[in-house]
Amino acid sequence: MTGTGILPISEALKLQPGAEVRVRGWVYRRRDLGDKAFVVVRDSTGIIQSVFTPESRSHAEARRVTVESSVVVQGKLREDPRAPGGKEIQGEELVIIGLAENFPIRRDASREFLLNVRHLAVRSRKMTAVLKIRHTVFGALHEWFRENGFYEVQCPMFISAAVEGGATLFPVKYVDESTVYLTQSSQFYLEALIFSLEKVYTVAPSFRAEKSRTRRHLTEFWHAEAEVAWVGLEGILKVEEELVSHIVRRVLERNREELDLLGRNLEGLKQVEPPFPRVSYDNAIEILQSKGIQVAWGDDLGADEERALTLEFDKPFFLYGFPEKAKAFYHKNDPSRPEVTLSADLLAPEGYGEIIGGGERIDRLDELVEKIKRFGLNPKDYEWYLDLRRFGTVPHAGFGLGMDRLVMWIGGLEHIVDSVPFPRTVARTYP
Ligand code: 4AD
Ligand code: MG
After folding, report:
1. Is the predicted pLDDT of residue 21 greater than 70, yes or no?
2. Fewer Cβ neighbours under 10 Å: the N or C end of the chain?
3. Where does ligand 1 bind, in terms of residues with CB under 6 Å?
4. Atom of ligand 1 at shortest distance to CA of 406?
């Protein structure tokens, strides 16, 4: 009954005044002006205002309906410059499908409160816009990889050894009571799969027991990772810049409305085209020191240092040549300068910082065993990973892209939790 002749709100708004329309959705705003009842309805495509006068047979329903109730509204479309979209429905019928209780979210709700009722807050126009951008970002990523000869693969979430260091591992008691861990990165499995597919990628959650409460750390995040046989650092940087540019282009094409709703300044995004500038770690240290920031060569760069650097750039840039100590053991050292690695991070501009980490991998067995030991780790824990260097090893490189951070930057969001529907942080696993 309520399904016949229903139009998406965005479609209804395109019709000529005088057209009879029927829409369904949720009450976004409700108010009375004299004896008129105004009901603004939203669906996944937009919002439309309807007005019910005492002559309408649903006048009483329109007056009693509450915010966030689900409804079907029918009436005649007419021009109204004051209404959102420039048109409104002269309401004839309003059917209440689910009358909402007093909706707990008010305009002045705090960030903490909104996170506690995230299952309701995902309905907001802001979250809806972010989720639509996120949808484009994930779709465009798959599109680019598939158009460029990459195979999509799936890797396990239960693992037995650390990829990114023991400090952020999440232990899980396994079926046989032994301890396993949630994956921090699918990298090692991707490295195994290049021997059959050469160019592989995966999109999956990664887990980090991050104790720090920052604007850019989740304990569960969406990780897009790729690994390519027969390429070195420069080859993988090309993949990264092409991929990121493609994604940004798609969002600009498809999500103007959402970016506008979020108040995103588009000038920076429009400049995202390859090649991205490449800045050496050495140079970055000099830049930071010249700004009076206390860093020494060899230090890893934290959020504050990255922020200071990114404010110098208006498009994403690569920071390459990190010291050995600042990066995980699997990074290949530069043969012409062994104290630095053939690694690079991609930093997003406007203060956002690292969105990708990657580089060339050690492909020689003896070199890898030696570095594992130098890092105080046990080669026994990496037996199968070492096998990859025993059976037909090839030069290869790869990277990991934090999808939530990418959405955060593209959407111009303040905090990483704003980019995920149900964020998991050190302080939050509900709802
Ligand atoms: O730099 P990371 O730790 O690199 C790796 O995990 C590599 N094994 C990836 C690879 O080469 N296959 O993580 C990669 C990216 C970071 O640049 C960041 O964008 C994101 O993953 N990331 C996080 N995002 C949200 N919350 C966290 N706690 C994150 N940790 C990493
Ligand atoms: Mg990193």
Report:
1. yes
2. N
3. 163-164, 185, 187, 208, 210, 217-218, 221, 223, 225, 354-358, 398-400, 402, 404-405
4. 19
